[in-house]
Amino acid sequence: MDRIVFFSVLSIFSFLVTFSDVMIPQKHVTALPLSTNSRWIVDENGQRVKLACVNWVSHLEVMVAEGLSEQPMDAIAKRIVSMGFNCVRLTWPVFLVTNDTLGSLTVRQSLRSLGLLESISGIQANNPSIIDLPLLNVYQAVVSSLGDNNVMVILDNHISKPGWCCSNSDGNGFFGDQYFDPDLWITGLTRMASMFNGVPNVVGMSLRNELRGPKQNVNDWYRYMQKGAEAVHSANPDVIVILSGLNYDKDLSFLRNRPVNLTFSRKIVFEVHWYGFTDGQAWKNGNPNQVCGRVMDNMMRISGFLLDQGWPLFMSEFGVDQRGTNVNDNRYLGCFLGVAAELDFDWALWTLVGSYYLRQGVVGMNEYYGVLNSNWSETRNSTFLQQISAIQSPFRGPGVSEVHLHKVIFHPSTGLCVLRKSMLEPLRLGPCTKSEAWNYTPQKILSVKGTYFCLQTDELAKPAKLGIICTDSNSKWETISDSKMHLSSKAPNGTPVCLDIDSNNTIVTSTCKCLSKDNTCDPESQWFKLVNSTTRSSTMTKPSSQISSILNFPAKDFLWKFLGSV
After folding, report:
1. What whole-number distance in Å separates Cα of residue 142 and Cα of residue 68?
2. What are phi and psi of 89, to 5 degrees?
3. CB burial readout 458-495, b (16+ within 10 A) else e
4. Dist. CA 12–CA 17, nearest whole Å
5. Which InterPro entries match (predicted)?
6. Cα 135 from Cα 109, distance rounded (Å)
7. Which alpha helices (H) appear in 127-198, and where do they start and end?
8. Angle between helix 218-235 and 182-195 (nearest 10)
9. pLDDT value at position 456?
């Protein structure tokens, strides 16, 4: 007995010393401009920069960034930062820079021409300095305000003729469509790239949003997208150049065996879009595990493979109904966040916008996919911001490694990770920045890295625990179900169980649920993703006091309460 206790205390001492010395990486000032290093976007020092962006709409008929009638420009920029975003994908229409009549309109004139008198009053109240500026100058002012708040900007050519996007018949879908003159598009790209040459927070340009429609074809994609990329790089060699795919930016499969051919390198990024409605009502009508597995496999086949080929992939649009009542979106989101954490790609949320000046003929339309409310004063859903918080920072990448490669156990539906608050308390969910560093062995053992402790099941509906006897079946964890997000083991009596959480976010084991067929079941409490990381592991404060409390703890009680092995 004494040997067991002594061995256990040494293990705990090792645990505490190991993790008390690990520092959580701090946010750094990005050294611009950006470039690429294999699948990563990096700064001038070669350190990874993860784009955690939000889309800010400026391509509709008014051609003014939405929300400026509701809040001061600087206040919106500061709100973006406070929500954890480091980047804005700022949309623009080609005609803004190629049609002098439109581009020279003032904000007042643009709003008045559309009968938006209330918006004129709102901008006079909240942003009086821009009301009589030309539209193009206001676009520049928005970029400048974001720069003043250290927010990077991706200039996104969303459409040619100002208006809501997108449909197959809107005349903006593909080269040669009614409003999509390839030469005029090149001119617009060149002018925007030149205009923002030397503006340091403009770090990238997206060539075109959601190519689509009956005219789309691969040969014209290569012909014009390569030409557009060359034009942007020639006019502004500092920016990364972002290329979208076909079929509403879902399909980049044609690149698998035919890469782009450009005169420059280390500046190319590919973008893709993925929403719940991308797959219709599949999430609502199907089993979430099976739909997640199927959709994830398809995404990897038609776009995700680029990461393996050494290209950065920018998920430039994803999003959900922020009201939380859309079953299709809710189920999709858990799957998306698991994939986003695992692949650690760059992304841009749709959308910042709480309401529009005018959208599809409706004045002041509420945007339920917007993170801000209709008057742009508060976040619409604080729970959602918690869910995405973990993916706003990099899990790994060049120059950001603080510790050796390990796993974190990420819980997508909460945006939290498995951690241990103290040595004598059960495992709970908490901020991923304080996550334990786990090692997942070929024998399916999940152990706390650098220690003898492994994750074990106890009885059904009881908290999972850490132990040091890691050879039994209750210490082996398999990833099961099509989603690959159920972690399953066996209770001491041989009953199959899955990792789960209770109402207090304590890690427990429960009967595995929703693995297949049932389309009414919600599996998300049991969805966990093992994510590779080199930037996150726990810090344990005051290790000496914790060691002291353990050394003074009665040996028998300690073993019962912590190891469960007497």
Report:
1. 10
2. -90, 100
3. beeeebbbbbbebeeebbbbeebbbbbbbbbbbbeeee
4. 9
5. Glyco_hydro_5
6. 10
7. 135-148, 182-195
8. 30
9. 95
Rounded Cα gap, residues 411 and 48, in angstroms: 24
Name the residue type at position 497.
V
Phi first, then psi: give them for residue 126, nearest 5 degrees: -100, -30
Report which of 233, 157, 227 is spatially closest to residue 194, judged by C-alpha positions: 233
Instruction: Say if CB 375 and CB 367 are below 8 A apart.
Output: no
| Measured distance CA(483)–CA(353) in Å, rounded | 31
End-to-end CA distance of the chain: 9
pTM: 0.91
Three-state secondary structure readout of 411-473? ECCCCEEEECCCCCCCCEEECHHHCCCEEECCCCEEEECCCCCEEECCCCCCECEEECCCCCH
Distance of alpha carbon 407 from alpha carbon 405, whole angstroms? 7
Cis peptide before 394 (omega within 30 of 0): no
Q: What angle do CA 554, 555, 556 make, to 5 degrees?
A: 95
- How far, in Å, CA of 430 to CA of 555, rounded? 29
pLDDT tens-digit readout, 307-326: 999 999 999 999 999 999 99
Say how far apart CA 74 and CA 142 lie, in whole Å: 9
| pLDDT single digits (tens) 402-437 | 778 999 999 999 999 999 877 678 999 999 999 989
Helix (H) / strand (E) element for 203: namely strand 202-206
Read off the amino acid at residue 423. Answer: M
- Contact partners, residue 316, CB within 8 Å, separation at least 6: 53, 55, 89, 154, 156, 206, 242, 244, 249, 271, 272, 273, 347, 348
Q: How many C-beta atoms surround the C-beta of residue 184 within 10 A?
A: 16
Rounded to 10°, the helix 543-551/2-20 angle is 170
User: Amino acid identity of 370?
Assistant: G
**Measuring CA to CA, which residue among 401, 404, 400, 428 is closest to residue 416?**
428
Tell me if 418 sits within 8 A of 435, measured CB to CB: yes
Q: What is the pLDDT of residues 9-44, one digit of tens each?
A: 334 334 333 333 333 333 445 789 999 999 999 999
- Mean pLDDT over 245-271 rounds to 98
Residues in the chain: 566
Which tokens belong to 288? 């979430």
Dist CA 33 CA 201 (whole Å)? 8
> Are the C-beta atoms of residues 407 and 532 closer than 8 Å to each other?
yes
Helices (H), 197-280: 218-235
Q: What percent of the chain has pLDDT over 70?
A: 89
Confidence of residue 162 (pLDDT cuts 50, 70, 90): very high
User: What value does the mean pLDDT take over residues 452-478?
Assistant: 94
Helix, coil or strand: residue 455: strand
DSSP H or E segment with residue 327: helix 327-343
